[in-house]
């Protein structure tokens, strides 16, 4: 084999902390919106079934409180964590296999959700029902989103076109969350 037949590969460029944080934000917002909406919708019948009577659950504001929390997590929590603690965890897991790094992020996301879940549970007169619903509708999406975002990050970071796709998905995710919040919080018909 001559020197001209050797395969040439581009040197692998490490993902910068800033680019990684912005990509994680762009990926994490739509992922969180989809996972949180799916799990909140799936858990609502369970919360209704566990309440002593249907009117109690409807009048608790539990669903509204969780919806507000989910909007806050999607629009503030995901970017805040991606640009602060996420950078630290990303730097610590940079050399780890992607599966192990994703598990680390999932644990981080779930642990960060615990105070919010506890707050939502104790804000309800039915702490058990409110806590279970908050854990399913807020806690699990936080962990799943962090782990899945970390798992998807290398794929989106690989090329400029994929990074652009992440930015477009992030923008669409923000728009979807804003529309979702208008419908849930203000009853706006979209």
Give structural notes.
This protein is an all-alpha fold and 190 residues long. It has seven helices and no strands. The protein has helices at 17-50, 54-60, 62-83, 85-92, 98-122, 127-157, 160-186. The longest helix has 34 residues, at 17-50. The chain starts with 16 loop residues before the first helix and ends with a helix. The mean pLDDT is 87.
| Rg (CA only) | 20 Å
Low-pLDDT runs: none
Shape: elongated
Distance between the termini: 64 Å
What's the total count of β strands? 0
Bin the helical content.
over 70%
Protein traits:
190 residues; mainly alpha; 7 helices
Topology at a glance:
Elements: H1 17-50, H2 54-60, H3 62-83, H4 85-92, H5 98-122, H6 127-157, H7 160-186
Helix pairs in contact: 1-3, 1-4, 1-6, 1-7, 3-6, 3-7, 5-6
Short description:
This protein has 7 helices and no strands.
